[in-house]
Structure formats: structure tokens, C-alpha cells
Automatic annotation (TrEMBL):
InterPro entries: DUF1697. Signal peptide: none annotated. Pfam families: DUF1697 (PF08002). This is DUF1697 domain-containing protein. SUPFAM superfamilies: SP0830-like. It comes from Rhizobium sophorae.
Length: 175
């Protein structure tokens, strides 16, 4: 048996309807996953499952999500071991937990695409690629940065962002 962390790219179904975490946990149970639990209301799911590759879990979750909720949502899945590795490699641990964000990628981010982000950065901001994921220290509120709006699937590939506080919270759920 393995522990997995699933990160939904979006929980917005329609402008007036979001996925409720209770429904997300119910979906995980329907798919045969055990002990599903969520962290905050933004699509962070931790559960136990038989030995599977994360990509297989992603496919099952995405298909099940679309069938249950009527909308495709990209879901990134990491095993507990790869999540612990991600957590231990934060290059900006000296940054504020709500200002340091990791874009967890399905496939490693292209370094050329990261290089293209640099002109959007302001003084104090830092970016780094570690293990194929993109880490950003916004050095201020991410919502006030031009960089945030450039971190799209179209530009960088399939991925989803979580701040350092959430990454640590998910880590605490699996240790």
C-alpha cells in the first residue's frame, strides 16, 4: 500500500459552483482509495492506495472527476516519497510561507520557458527549477505580481501551484 498526494488544478466547476472537499473525498472512496483526507478547500487530497504509478492514479482521478462533476480538471499526483523529496528541496526556505510557491508539474518544466519568465520578475523575486518543478519566491503578495498571470498551463505545461504553507501541511499529513 502507498500514500499519494493529489493536487487539483481547479475546483471551480461553474462560476457559481465549486467542488466541496467532502465530495472530493467521496470520489476517492468510490475509486477504491482508502482514508481520503483533504487540506484546506482548494483541492489537496491525501489517500492510501495499492501500489500504482502516479500517472495511473492521475488518469483514474481525472476520468472519475470528469464523470462525477462533468468537467475535466488536471490533477497532479505524487507518491509520498516524491512529495517528501519536493518538500526537502525548497530553494527558498528563507521566504515567507504564503509568498513562496511551487508549480508542481506533470512533466519537468522546460528551462527555456522558465528563462522567458525572467523579464516579468521584479526586484527581490527569485525562481528556480528543482526536480522539474518551478519554485517562485514572489517576495510579496503573488496576486500583485505580473509573474503570477504568466504561470499558465498554456505557457508552462500541465501543473498546479501550492504555497509553501500548503506544501508543509500536506507533508505533515503523510508523516
Amino acid at each position: 500500500m502507498s500514500t499519494f498526494i493529489a493536487l487539483l488544478h481547479s475546483i471551480v466547476l461553474t462560476p457559481d459552483r465549486r467542488v466541496i472537499m467532502q465530495d472530493l473525498r467521496a470520489l476517492a472512496k468510490e475509486l477504491g482509495y482508502r482514508e481520503p483526507r483533504t487540506l484546506v478547500s482548494t483541492g489537496n487530497l491525501v489517500f492510501e492506495a495499492d501500489e500504482m504509478r502516479p500517472h495511473e492514479v492521475e488518469t483514474q482521478l481525472e476520468e472519475g472527476f470528469e464523470e462525477k462533476f462533468g468537467k475535466h480538471v488536471d490533477i497532479i499526483v505524487r507518491s509520498d516519497c516524491t512529495w517528501m523529496a519536493l518538500c526537502s528541496t525548497n530553494p527558498f526556505k528563507d521566504g515567507n510561507g504564503d509568498q513562496v510557491i511551487v508549480r508542481v508539474m506533470r512533466l519537468p518544466v522546460d528551462p527555456k520557458k522558465v528563462e522567458a519568465l525572467k523579464p516579468l520578475m521584479t526586484e527581490g523575486q527569485r525562481i528556480a527549477v528543482v526536480g522539474g518543478d518551478l519554485w517562485i519566491d514572489f517576495a510579496g503578495k503573488p496576486s500583485q505580481s505580473k509573474l503570477l498571470s504568466a504561470l499558465t498551463t498554456k505557457r508552462l505545461g500541465v501543473g498546479t501551484m501550492r504555497n509553501w504553507n500548503t506544501v508543509r501541511g500536506l507533508t505533515e499529513m503523510i508523516i
